[in-house]
Amino acid sequence: MGATSASSGVQPWIGESVVTRASVGLPTLDRSELSGHLIVLEGTDGSGRSTQIALLTEWLESQGFAVQTMGLRRSFLIAKDIDSLLAKNSVTRYTLALMYATDFFDQLENRILPALRSGMIVLADRYYYTLIARAAVRGLDHQYLHRIYDLALPPDLTFFLNVRPQIAFEREFQKSPAISFWEAGRDLHLSDDLYDSFISYQTMVRKEFVNLAKRHGFATLNGENTVRTVNADLRKRIASYLGIRNIRYRPSHALVHLWQ
Amino acid sequence: MGTPSTTIEQAAQPEEKRPKQPTRPYSGALVVVEGIDGSGKSTQLHLLKRWLEVGGYRTYFTEWNSSPLVKSATRRGKRRRLLTPVTFSLIHAADFADRYERQILPLLRSGHLVLADRYVYTAFARDGARGCPVDWLRNLYQYAVVPDVTFYFRAPLEIAIRRILSGRPRLKYYEAGMDLGLSLDPIESFTKFQGITLARYDQMVQTDNFVLMDGTLPVHQLQQKMRDVVSEHIELKRFKG
């Protein structure tokens, strides 16, 4: 460690400088060793992220890029524990925020960074911005949340799929026959009417995203457009970033059902 | 969550930069013991607790890493050695938050004298020794109230190590700091890791107003000092009955 960490505001080391770089990991990450690219899709529930990730994965792989995907609550370390906590909904807000942070950093260090070191494209279905937005609507301080993720890797490209809550509701309802406790933000006691609660909660989250988009320079796309239109826009922007000339794409038979 | 008199984060700043102290948002009091393993802190807190209980004060004891919430994840992470310095720190922060929000703060709000075996300073010292940036750690715990008294039990490294090693046959991987690659020998690794942690604690004596306790003194004598300091800093009669 030592002077190399000064850029991230790390306190100088005291005593023996015995901690090796490899053992410290993230706090001393050297971005130049990452030859891959990190592309993030953000948006509220029902904004079409997962559909777009599936299509982009196929397109990028057909262009010869190796792709790794990630999403929230998928870490080996702690995902199951978060699931069971959410099922019981007895958790407090700081605890939940920190458990999600643990899940996020476990995936970042054990999955994303190795993939980026080996030159892969990582497509993230949500990233720490979602965690900031969700915790912020529950009253946690923005600066507190941002500083937790100061240690994380900012994406190369972030897209925000912007969808009105009413549209998101329709889409979520098509996916599953009932709205879940957490999608409706029921822990916030916004309304006993589940539809009202869903709309109020998703409106709050969306507002956080709009602010995050400004602060972090996301590319905001109209997520209410058709899957094809949104996908064409995404391909154009990603192609320009990666230097891909051919942006024409038709999904394979396996994914054609998504192509609307 | 309420605003503490001086936040954990601000405590590291020079006195003149700290905001004026507002009144505490709770009627309880918080006494903390800190120090490396083998410094004698748990024994002393146990004796303090006995004294307060026998005296009839509303007392509650809490210790680090006792929440069932993240137990399975922590166990999984430790057994399979999956934890990095950052996830090690975050998983303990989640555990602390659960205990803080559901136990420590409600007890303080309801007027208890809370005795904590380790508090946020353990994370600052131990996770800092693992390489997590200190300002990042302080931010992580910034919502936690500053204790009324923090006792820092300091014993020379050799003495603390001897106490630990004589009582325990085998050191665990993370406990010995083996994840830092300091040494392949657990005892040597543990000794180095405790040494770095000790240096981290020493730095906080000034910034976080620790009451320094010489862990080499006789148990009885230390306990007397502890009781004197507690009586002096905390109006104990508030906790009677």
Commentary on this structure:
- The complex is a heterodimer of chains A (260) and B (241).
- Chain A has 260 residues and is α/β, with parallel strands linked by helices.
- Chain A has a domain at 36-71 and 122-258: Rossmann fold, CATH 3.40.50.300.
- Chain A contains nine helices and five strands.
- Chain A has helices at residues 21-24, 49-62, 79-88, 93-117, 128-137, 142-148, 165-175, 194-216, 227-242; strands at residues 37-42, 67-71, 121-125, 157-162, 219-222.
- Chain A has a five-stranded parallel β-sheet with strand order 2-3-1-4-5, with helices on both faces.
- The radius of gyration of chain A is 19 Å and the shape is globular.
- Chain B has one domain: P-loop containing nucleotide triphosphate hydrolases (Rossmann fold, 3-Layer(aba) Sandwich).
- In chain B, 47% of the residues lie in helices and 11% in strands.
- Chain B has eight helices and five strands, in the order βαβααβααβααβα.
- Chain B has a five-stranded parallel β-sheet, with helices on both faces.
- Classes of the chains: A alpha/beta (260), B alpha/beta (241).
- The interface between A and B is large, with 44 and 45 residues.
